[in-house]
Amino acid sequence: MAAAAALLSFACTARSASGPVSGSLPIAAWPASSLLRGIGISPKTPLSLADYEALDVLRPGSVVVYSTQLGDRDPLRWLGNDPELQRWLREHQDVTPIVRMWPVRGPDDPRRLAQRIVMLHARYPWIVWFEIANEPDIEWADASWNGIASWASDVWWSVERYRRTQPAASDIRLLFPPLAQASPLDPENVGYDAMKNVVELYLDHGDGIAGHEYWDRDKVYLVEESWPAWLRERLASAPFFVTECGRRPLPTNGWPDESLGYELLQFTQRTRAHVVAPFVLSSPGGSFDQYDFVDRRGVSRPHLFIWGALGP
Q1: For 189-199, what is each residue's pLDDT tens digit?
Q2: pTM
Q3: Domains, the chain, with CATH or none
Q4: Going by C-beta distance under 8 Å and a sequence separation of 6 or more, which residues neighbour residue 1?
Q5: Distance CA 210, CA 203 (A)
Q6: Comparing C-alpha atoms, which of 79, 158, 78, 143 is closest to residue 106?
Q7: Cα(143)–Cα(34) distance, integer angstroms
Q8: Rounded to whole angstroms, what are the CA distances from 87 to 24, 101, 120?
Q9: What is the distance between the alpha carbons of residues 271 and 245, in angstroms, rounded to a whole number?
């Protein structure tokens, strides 16, 4: 009965037509949900009014945002600064943000990356979690496990110097980057073992690890179960954030629908993760609008009904 009421409340919530925010965004006050009820903020600038209304209904406990949305420079000019999102984050400081450093299409200079992280933390001191890269095993040209491990180690030490010498930076926390499941370099059977020393460098010092986990329609499986035994054991106590999840982008998996919402619930009940942030872009083909929180009419996606009404 409570679940049905929640779904009815969600479905009956008024939503605006999707469009840029004009003027000052009205920010609703609400308590954050569990960290497990997260969401990946849409990679666009700016968010629309309907996006914020969807967030008000979802009431996440964690969000994955892009560093450029917080004012970090984007050499690719794909994403820009979003002052309204920044104001929303300030008003909802009980929501835990995880910042994906953007863009990383190669091994960014570790010292420069550390400076960017420290500058963002100084600007938003309540934001402490930073994902240093995204799937470098497929996004980098000529990627290798030795190269990724060496770079991740250099980034860690570059940030650690700030943490040891600047009190304001001492609470910064890093996430070892998520890898692309079943990529040609085979992270599950080769990669994590090859980088074990560096992964443990992060986990032994209070930092964490990020993962991306995708499954198939009506067949929820945990990619983390295919990780090496030593890493699975560490997930019981180390910070582990799933910063992308959903169905694999295959035609047979179809569009996001209500059943995907129930699959997200199944995944959350089984994962070892402390944060679960579905990726709204997880679907095959179609226009960019097809993957947003809401469609062009301002109607929330079906899986977000379930995630918002019944999620943790």
Answers
A1: 999 999 999 99
A2: 0.91
A3: 30-310 (3.20.20.80)
A4: none
A5: 11
A6: 143
A7: 36
A8: 10, 19, 15
A9: 11
